[in-house]
């Protein structure tokens, strides 16, 4: 627990706490009160297997949370990513980060938002909640618009964009209540959506026949020929598109759906192992699907002009040929134009299969985004509302700006904001990464499962890299503004952003063992009562 010699610490239930504390220790798993939750009333039972190193039956019991979480790595916001090695790199990082999230949920019985609510002071806690909500809104806009675009393509333009948004909102409400019939049924539905995506994008991958050698080279060799500021902005956006901040909060909550005796150290260790295996498999599947998508874009659209596509669409009788002016400018595609081009070059079936894949990706991602909003709001604000009331509120917060954009923009110009939304989510990453590293590094919270030196160094490097990328982007973005008023406003917001990140980083460094930052006091020591509780827990 954090100590501070600046003020005397009061006594609470026999345990010394700090009125001016940064983070205070929770009770041990033996006596800690289960936090209120409207989810996971009926947890999935895990089969008992004594003296067995690995069990497929147990892996099957733990399978589900990782795949629900991996859906967010397949949302339409990832479709326009075009740097192979960044996709590969950003799919390995989440394995590390999600292991931290799973470990926090399994060991403490609380998800990240609940731990933040109990440990951070009121003002930083509210700011943190608002930042995470902002990330969810940005992600939701991409996902819902992706669904609306898919419906527009499938209906040959008969369903307008705003109509697709309303349909997506409605069916999300319906699908989210599937867990009332059992959590495993909801997980099976998500598995079905992932299968639809794999088949749809896999079909497109086989159809366009990308160069396998160049594909492997692009995965593992970090290069970007003739890249400039625009491509750098896309690269920053990929970080936000793939490692979504609310995913960390979501995964720490989903692992609570399994029946694990947190007082039994062996069961906790076993749960951490199986969740790690399951998350790795889920992320590998999502990586393959992303490979299919990016390969289709790279092979089918590279080095083509608007005139090439216009002539081909005219030859095949496509109703969308007006999207491409008859000039020799380089073809620029998004998820809408991409489907049209596939239809012109490879037939109508390619367009419809592409749209089905986008619809499955958007629908599943908006459902997980809504789930994230439930846990984030419940945890940070300690709400005790009914599930329907919270779903209604969180969907209204996230969908309102999307509906306004859909009403006042046409489908051809909507996806231009994709890069901005990706960068917005990238800038919110520290508000998930720093807290998860902070709390999983505290022995007073994690007991024997606190991060070791390797995990602390690795986590610190990942956070440092992400923060450095974000700071660079902030500087580039602010200096590119032409308006003096916008320049001043962006500068003030940037200073506030960096100050809050610095505040969280300060607490994180103390948790990592830099005790000299803790008001120059002494090495942290746990109260005797907590030490006794830990001894009972460890035994």
**Strand elements, count:** 2
- On the 0-100 scale, what is the average pLDDT? 77
Q: What's the CATH superfamily, by name?
A: Amino acid/polyamine transporter I
How many domains, as an integer?
1
The structural class is mainly alpha
Q: What share of the residues does DSSP label as strand, in percent? A: under 5%
| Radius of gyration from CA coordinates | 24 Å
Shape estimate: globular
Count of runs of 4 or more consecutive helical residues: 22
What is the C-level CATH assignment? Mainly Alpha
N-to-C SSE string, H for helix and E for strand: EEHHHHHHHHHHHHHHHHHHHHHH
- Euclidean distance between termini CA atoms: 21 Å
Q: Helix amount, in percent? A: 55-70%
Protein name: Natural resistance-associated macrophage protein 2-like
GO molecular function, one term: iron ion transmembrane transporter activity
Subcellular location: Late endosome membrane; Lysosome membrane
Keywords: Ion transport, Iron, Iron transport, Lysosome, Membrane, Transmembrane, Transmembrane helix, Transport
Defining traits:
single chain; 539 residues; mainly alpha; Amino acid/polyamine transporter I; two-stranded antiparallel sheet; 1% strand; manganese ion transmembrane transporter activity; membrane; transport; cadmium ion transmembrane transporter activity; iron
Overview of this structure, please?
A two-stranded antiparallel sheet has the order 1-2. The protein starts with 10 loop residues before the first strand and ends with a helix. It contains 22 helices and 2 strands. With 539 residues, the chain is mainly alpha-helical. It has one domain: Amino acid/polyamine transporter I (Up-down Bundle), CATH 1.20.1740. The radius of gyration is 24 Å and the shape is globular. Helix 3 runs parallel beside helix 10, helix 13 runs antiparallel to helix 14 and helix 20 packs antiparallel against helix 21. Its main location: membrane. Pfam families: Nramp. It is a multi-pass membrane protein. One of its GO terms (molecular function) is manganese ion transmembrane transporter activity.
């Amino acid at each position: 627990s954090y100590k501070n010699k600046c003020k005397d610490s009061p006594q609470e239930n026999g345990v010394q706490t700090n009125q001016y504390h940064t983070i205070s220790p929770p009770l041990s798993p033996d006596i800690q009160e289960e936090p209120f939750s409207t989810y996971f009333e009926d947890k999935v039972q895990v089969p008992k297997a004594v003296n067995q190193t690995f069990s497929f039956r147990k892996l099957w019991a733990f399978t589900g949370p990782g795949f629900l979480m991996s859906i967010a790595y397949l949302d339409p916001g990832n479709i326009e990513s075009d740097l192979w090695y960044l996709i590969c790199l950003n799919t390995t990082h989440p394995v590390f980060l999600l292991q931290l999230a799973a470990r926090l949920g399994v060991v403490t019985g609380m998800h990240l938002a609940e731990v933040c609510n109990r440990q951070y002071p009121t003002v930083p806690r509210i700011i943190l909640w608002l930042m995470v909500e902002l990330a969810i809104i940005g992600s939701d806009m991409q996902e819902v618009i992706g669904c609306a675009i898919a419906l527009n393509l499938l209906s040959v333009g008969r369903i307008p964009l705003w109509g697709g948004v309303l349909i997506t909102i409605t069916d999300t409400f319906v699908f989210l209540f599937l867990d009332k019939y059992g959590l495993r049924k909801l997980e099976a539905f998500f598995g079905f959506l992932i299968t639809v995506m794999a088949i749809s994008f896999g079909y497109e991958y086989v159809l366009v026949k990308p160069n396998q050698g160049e594909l492997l080279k692009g995965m593992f060799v970090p290069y970007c020929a003739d890249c400039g500021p625009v491509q750098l902005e896309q690269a920053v956006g990929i970080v936000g598109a793939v490692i979504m901040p609310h995913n960390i909060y979501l995964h720490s909550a989903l692992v609570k759906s399994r029946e694990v005796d947190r007082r039994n150290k062996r069961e906790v260790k076993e749960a951490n192992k199986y969740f790690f295996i399951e998350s790795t498999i889920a992320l590998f599947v999502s990586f393959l699907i992303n490979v299919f998508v990016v390969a289709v874009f790279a092979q089918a659209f590279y080095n083509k002009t608007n005139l090439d596509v216009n002539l081909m669409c005219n030859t095949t009788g496509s109703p969308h040929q007006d999207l491409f002016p008859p000039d020799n400018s380089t073809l620029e595609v998004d998820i809408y134009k991409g489907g049209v081009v596939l239809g012109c070059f490879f037939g109508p079936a390619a367009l419809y299969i592409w749209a089905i894949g986008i619809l499955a990706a958007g629908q599943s991602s908006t459902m997980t985004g809504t789930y994230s909003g439930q846990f984030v709001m419940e945890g940070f604000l300690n709400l005790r509302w009914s599930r329907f009331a919270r779903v209604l509120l969180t969907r209204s917060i996230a969908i309102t700006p999307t509906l306004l954009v859909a009403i006042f923009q046409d489908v051809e110009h909507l996806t231009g904001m994709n890069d901005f939304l990706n960068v917005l989510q990238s800038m919110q990453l520290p508000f998930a990464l720093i807290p998860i590293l902070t709390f999983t590094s505290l022995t007073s919270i994690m007991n024997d499962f606190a991060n070791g030196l390797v995990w602390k160094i690795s986590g610190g490097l990942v956070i440092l890299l992400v923060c450095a990328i974000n700071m660079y982007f902030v500087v580039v973005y602010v200096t590119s503004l032409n308006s003096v008023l916008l320049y001043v406003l962006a500068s003030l917001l940037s200073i506030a952003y960096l100050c809050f990140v610095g505040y969280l980083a300060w607490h994180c460094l103390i948790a990592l063992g830099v005790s000299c930052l803790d008001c120059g006091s002494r090495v942290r020591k746990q109260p005797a009562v907590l030490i006794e509780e830990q001894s009972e827990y460890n035994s």
